[in-house]
Amino acid sequence: MRASQFFISTLKEAPADAEIVSQKLMLRAGFIRKVAAGVYTWMPMGLRTLRKVETIVREEMDRAGAIELTMPVVQPAGLWQETGRWDKMGEELLRFQDRHERDFVIQPTSEEVITDIARNELKSYRALPKNFYQIQTKFRDERRPRFGVMRGREFVMKDAYSFDRDMEAAGKSYDNMYRAYCRIFDRLGLTYRAVAADTGAIGGDRSHEFQVIADTGEDAIVYCPQSDYAANIELAEALAPEGERPAPGATMQKVHTPRVKTIADLVGFLKMDIRQTVKAVVVEGDEAPVLMLVRGDHELNEVKAEKIAGIKKPLTFASPAAILAAFGANPGSLGPVGFKGRIIADRTVAKMADMVVGANEDDHHYTGVNFGRDCAEPEVADLRNVVEGDPSPCGKGALAIQRGIEVGHVFYLGTKYSVAMNATFLDEDGKPKPLEMGCYGIGVTRIVGAAIEQNHDTRGIIWPDAIAPFGVVICPVGYDRSEAVRATADTLYQGLAERGIDVILDDRGERPGAMFADWELIGVPHRVTIGERGLKEGKVEYQYRRDAEATDLPAEGVLAAVLERLGR
Amino acid sequence: MRASQFFISTLKEAPADAEIVSQKLMLRAGFIRKVAAGVYTWMPMGLRTLRKVETIVREEMDRAGAIELTMPVVQPAGLWQETGRWDKMGEELLRFQDRHERDFVIQPTSEEVITDIARNELKSYRALPKNFYQIQTKFRDERRPRFGVMRGREFVMKDAYSFDRDMEAAGKSYDNMYRAYCRIFDRLGLTYRAVAADTGAIGGDRSHEFQVIADTGEDAIVYCPQSDYAANIELAEALAPEGERPAPGATMQKVHTPRVKTIADLVGFLKMDIRQTVKAVVVEGDEAPVLMLVRGDHELNEVKAEKIAGIKKPLTFASPAAILAAFGANPGSLGPVGFKGRIIADRTVAKMADMVVGANEDDHHYTGVNFGRDCAEPEVADLRNVVEGDPSPCGKGALAIQRGIEVGHVFYLGTKYSVAMNATFLDEDGKPKPLEMGCYGIGVTRIVGAAIEQNHDTRGIIWPDAIAPFGVVICPVGYDRSEAVRATADTLYQGLAERGIDVILDDRGERPGAMFADWELIGVPHRVTIGERGLKEGKVEYQYRRDAEATDLPAEGVLAAVLERLGR
Question: Which residues does the UniProt record annotate as the domain Aminoacyl-transfer RNA synthetases class-II family profile (chains A, B) (predicted)?
Fold first, then answer.
């Protein structure tokens, strides 16, 4: 491609409403333009990268035996009512009526349509296993779309759905997709982790998120540097501390703690180790409020808390009025002493002695509290988020935490949708059975943003070779003035293009500084600069995008030298 | 591809609501499945053909220098209000509100968004010319979606938009697209015509429809077999008959014509040549009703009628009450005699003598009516549709008419959108000027249906090679039983696949009859059947989809023989 025949539109400054680095760089480099909140045009430069991501995803899905189809963007409400998602999903599900006042949605995913296809088409065990996928425009009406393509409303997603005879076969389909995802993210050239994730109401242990590692990621990823253990923070298990609970060493005392509302207040007021304090959280149980206890420096893990039997789902914090009725005090002064209801202590709390807790009397706490002596022995559960340095559940070391951006998810669905929609097949024994399903998503547009969050510097984007809009840029200095420059640039361009290299020749006639700034912003990995002075010395300049400085290549044989840099 | 790893789902009967042959065959062959009225899933088999069409369109758009981008499916109302289309477009424009009650549309085309991009990005004459295109999901909320993908609501369209400095440059962009379209339809392997079409309010002569020729087409295409003249029926000019108007030969007489309401009634009642009769149509003028006259056997051309100065736009037929007030009679008995208002006669009527016309008195007609003698001389205009045998406007022969399906449209837009949206560029003289635009559409999904309407027989679809889901099918008889059959089939399959031929090996184990019926329905152009009996005689069978019978190929060297059939 010659730049004069393409469309390059870079900006000195990102629009004022751009918040994160990928959004700013995509706007500045002319990858996207905003049309409405969370709705973008993919400009020619951006579309090249998007298509490369799509192609890698498609090739690996095909290689894994998944079969591509395309379901409609606009879907009738009826199917969504069958599964209950019409009612259950919130406002992020975009609903509308057509001219005949029939209800429709714009697809955020396609479980309903694919299950409808499956119940019509996959009627025998002989038709199984099957895995259908699409790469398609989706819409999610985010309350607050932001961060460019990272949390847009209209986006491109690859969604795949597997259908199997039984759980064992479904497990194989799941593993097959897991491996395909690893190949996809390997080929994309991104640093990522597959982390175990919560399966929610489905149960089972088959849910993994694929997270692109980036300091700016919204998700906390827990992993063990000594093993392949990795999970998201919702799922990562916090083990009980080793050893027995110490014997009580103090007597319980009531302390007046005026204006102490938080653990930080308490620690400051009492001048004590935060690890002696206990945080009280009251949630609704199926019948009455339940007191949950985590150590002062720990965070309640709501996903873990919700899974406990007898806890209202979704997890609901008790109202101030309900708390006052049950405890006789307001939040900030709550604790287990004297509370007659259900008490669940985190595993760490269960091993504590001489605790500091709220006294169930406003502006008062107890110190020196011990389970069994001063209050009832609690139920014990894993209630908290792990923290850096916790022992890994794999038993091989201490946990580390890093930030990630979720770009893929593989998920075992079981028969949730097939039972709701009566999608059965006739098994070998002649009996109808519900199809076992899995679903597998990749945020194609999101990958583009995540790749930038992971790979950029102050000058701009640094694309992995596989998804750069162009692999190589040739920057001739004086293309219009110098015969030698033009001839060398044209020859190199043709040589690379003939070998199928995605090369762009910058023939716009820009000054070198502006030209270099554009290509560093756009993030093309390999740059060859050809100038008259260098040619007189038999040299051209080569610079890899991550290099601090350019190096010389011989002008003779520059094609071979560049191909070598490209690993070709 | 092996059939066992693909998804093949053929039906014996099309669903009862399928109306036309392409719709029936696409459903039966498993190309599409209906999700809602006018909304389909493209199943794996259909998607293969759709993607091949897309690829050809994309390659030729790229070759023509157009630059691909992707505008959003969901577009904010604001842009549509700027051009007035928010108000002007009817219910086929799907409007909805997001969760914040902001108005949006689902794009039927993207003139507004691309013009918004142009006014921000194409600010100098140095940025011109530019042509941007996308291949994208569109939605048009048809009142009565029908005919499968031929008139669906959700569809895939390639839409391109050119931006130029002036009309001359815009003309070059138009011609460039016209040529690209010819290459596209040539490569698709379809019989088509580019026909001149009406430009409506834009004016000028730059509008062509690309019509796939099919007896079942909705559009009438007028062409001259002796030249390259072709136009759609709305635009095709009806020349005036040669020679002078004959002198009056009869005297005017009033005839009682009870219950005669139509021209057919009149001809039957008076037992006369229909070519002596004149049909009266009353339309609203800017001030008063206008009488339009066409010969009894001709049809008023509403597009031509609407273009006449002083005629209300859009063309509006006068109400029965207005007609009664102006003529003193009801439709069925109207004519020029005694009418004091504006009279416009078609060119053919203007050359008639001794006409039979309504008498402006219910149940009465006049015979022997002559202009100038019995009523005023009318204005003369081209008011009618041409008919087969009319002299061609090119002067080289008589017109013929055939049916077509519109699959593409190139259209000079002028400054309609750029003026409405203030999309100007700074010209070389330093002055801002509105961008000259053209728009260029191809109905990608519609092409698939049109190709079938043109190419099918009683057994199924007959794909042109370029867009067949598979180019070659290998049908082994006894693949599981016979070593020789399996080896020959596998070797041929690998040989073709290695050469990049889109081949499918039917390893499903179906009986030969069912297997052949499937592939004839699906329409794969080249079939190779391999059976044990044939192999013993050193033969395999080859059949081209259009052939009535199979022919033998030598089993030795079958790969070379098949490649020759494929023109490789």
Answer: 33-464
